[in-house]
Amino acid sequence: MIKFICITLAAMFTLQAFGQKNNPVLIETKHTSLVLTIGDNKRVLQSYFGDRLPASSYSQLKGGREVLLTAGMENQFEPAIRMVHNDGNPSLELVYASHSVNRKDSNVTTTSITLQDPQYPVKVTLHYTTYYNEDVISSWTEINHNEKKAVVVSNYASSMLHFNADDYYLTQFHGDWAREVNMVEEKLTNGIKVVESKLGSRTNFYQTQTFFVSLNKPSTETEGQLIAGTLAWTGNFKYTFEVDQRNGLRVISGINPFASEYNLLPGETFTTPAFIYTYSGKGKGQASRNLHRWARNYGVLNGNGNRMTLLNNWEATHMNFDESKLVTLFDEAKKLGVDLFLLDDGWFGNKYPRNDDKAGLGDWQEDKKKLPNGIGYLVKQAEQRGVKFGIWLEPEMVNPKSELYEKHPDWILKLPNRPENYGRNQLVLDLTNPKVQDFVFNTVDELLVKSPGLAFIKWDCNRSMTNAYSPYLKDKQSHLYIEYTRSFYKVLDRIRAKYPTLPIMLCSGGGGRTDYGALKYFTEFWPSDNTDAFERVFIQWGYSYFFPANTLTAHITSMGKQSLKFRTDVAMMGKLGYDIRTNNFTPQELQFSNTAVQTYKGISPVIWFGEQYRLVSPYEGNRAVLMYVAEDKKRAVLFNYHLNSRRQDIFNRVMLQGLDANKKYRLKEINLFPDTKSTQPDNDKVFTGEYLMQVGLNLAPGRALPLTSNVYELTEE
Ligand code: DGJ
Questions:
Q1: Cys-Cys crosslink for 387: which of 326, 382, 472, 537, Cβ 3.0 to 4.6 Å?
Q2: Distance of alpha carbon 25 from its chain centroid, rounded?
Q3: pLDDT tens across 176-190, in order?
Q4: Measured from the CB, is residue 345 less than 6 Å from ligand 1?
Q5: Chosen domain end from 266, 299, 332
C-alpha cells in the first residue's frame, strides 16, 4: 500500500464566516484561484476560476453557478450527481453544511465542503486538494447517507467546472490499437459532447482520458487560457462538455455511470476518483509542465527516482525462445550496456504451454521445456553478466485453454446463458472476487519470493470487457465496472505494501491503460505496440502533454524502416529501451548503440526531471522539435526530427524556450553515428540564452534530409 503520511500543520477548522456575505472559500495555487461563494438559497456557487486574483478582488465576486448540479429539482441540464432516495423520491438538493481546511504541508492543502439535503439525511463532501507550486488541483467527492434503506446513485461526478467565454475549443486524444493518442481539436457547439470509455478493463483503447479546453480561441504552446484535465481512474470514465443556451460551458468529469447504478447502503461512503486539472493562462506548454511536475512529485510511483534502461524480448523473439536463447540475449544486453533484461510473454504454462496467444494464460508456472531451470536460474545468469532481470505478467486474464480455467470456471467474467466472447482468445478474471484478488496477489508475490533478484515487472492487460457479468457480485451486477477497478487497486495496494519500490511498467496491449489512478502504483507505462519511430514521434508527442518523459517508455525496435540513429533519437525523448536482436548489428551499429546508452544515462536527468518545451509540432509540418531544460537552467537537451519524405521541405529557424536569457550555453551535437560529423554550423559554439530564444537556430542547414534527426546538448559555459 502506498502510504501518504499526513502532517497536519494546521488542525482542521471550520470557517464560520463562509456563507456570510463577502467571505468566499478560496482554493488557490501559485497562479490560480478557484473561488466559491454561497448563494442566498445556501447553494454553493463557483464564482471564479482562472488566473490568480489579487486578494482585494475577492470581496467583489458575486453570484456564480452551482458547484455540483443535482438532478430532479429545477436543474434541466446534465447533472453531476443524481440520486433516488429510499422512498423513491428522485430529487436531490444540496446546500452548504460545513467546511474545513486541512493544510498537509506548505504545498498541499485540502479544502472540504460538506453539503447536505435539507429534507433527507444525505451528505456530499467536495474535496479540493491544491498543489500550490505545481498549480494543480485535484477534486473528488464523497457521498453518504443515513436513510432507512439503500439509495440509488446514478450520477457521481468527481468534479464540475463552469466557464464563461466567447468560444470553447476541446482537444481530445483518440485512437485504437497501435495508433494511440491522435490529437484533435474542435470548437464546442451548443449541446453536449461526450468523451468516454465503456471498456471496463483496457480503458484507454479508444480514448485516452486526457483533454484540454481552451477558452475564447484555440491555445498554442505559449498562448491562451485553458484547462488540462485527467481522471485518476483505471476504469470507465466520462467527460461531458455541455454548452448551454447562454453559451456557458459545464465540464463534468468522473466515473462513467454507464450500466453502473450504485446502491449505496446507509452509512456507506461512495468516494469518487480524483479529477486532476490545471489552469494555464499561458498556453498548453505551461499546462503540461504543471502536470509533469505534479506527476513527478505526487502522481507517479518514485516519480523523482531513477529508471532502468532495458532490453525487452517481445519484438525480438515473440514467444519463440528457450533458456539458451535468453542467455544469449543477456549477453546482448550486456554489450548494449543496458541495466535490465525484460522477459516478455511466453515463459509459462505446461499442460497448455504458452507458445502463442491461444493457450496458457493464467498458468503462471515456468514452461519446463523452454525454461528447465526456472526463473531463478535466469535471474542468476543475467546477474552474472551485470544485468538485472525483469518479467512480464498478465495476471487479470485467462485463456479458456488453461488449467486455471478448468479449475475455476466461476472466477471468470462471463454472461450466463450466452456463448463466451473472446478478445485475443482470452477472458477477464472476476477480480471483484476476493479469491481472485488473492490469486493475482499470490502470482506476483510467489514469483518475487521464489526469485528475490527479480528487479522489474511489466503488467499487461490485453482485453477490454465484453459480455461482462460477475458470478461473485450476483444481484449487484451494476457495481461490476466500479468494483473491478477498486479491486485492481486493492491488489496493487497489497503488492505495494510488500514491495514498495519495485519498478513496474503499466501496459495494456499498447496504451490501453494510461491514467494517474494506476500510475501511483507504477513507475512507467507502455504507450503503444506501434514502435515504428516515425509513428512514435506523434504518439510520444501526444502523451507528452499529460505525462512526464520518465513515465513514457520508448523502445528501439526493427519495426520502422528508419536508420538506427533516427530510431535511437526518438527513443531518447522518453524512457529509452531496446526490443531488438543486436546479434545482426554491424560493429558500427553496436558501437553507436553502446555509446547511445551511455549518452542517454548522462542526459536522462534533464529529460526526466527537466521542463519540457514543445517547439515545432509534427501536427503542423513535417518535423518535430522539442527540448528539455534542467530546473537550474544550466543544461538542456534539444531533439530535432525531420519527418519529411522528400528533400524539398524548407525548415525555418527554431527559437528555443525555457533557457536563462543571461546565461551562455555551448551547443553540442551528441549521439552522432560513428564516423559521421555534425553538419550543424553552430556546433560547439557558445550563445547567450537570449540569442537562442530570440534569434534561434537553423536546425536544417543545407537541406532537410528525409527522416534524419539530431540531438543537441546545451551546457552552461
Ligand atoms: C501487449 C504488449 O503491449 C506487448 O508489449 C507485449 O507485451 C504483448 N502484449 C505480449 O503478449
A1: 382
A2: 30
A3: 999 999 999 999 999
A4: yes
A5: 299
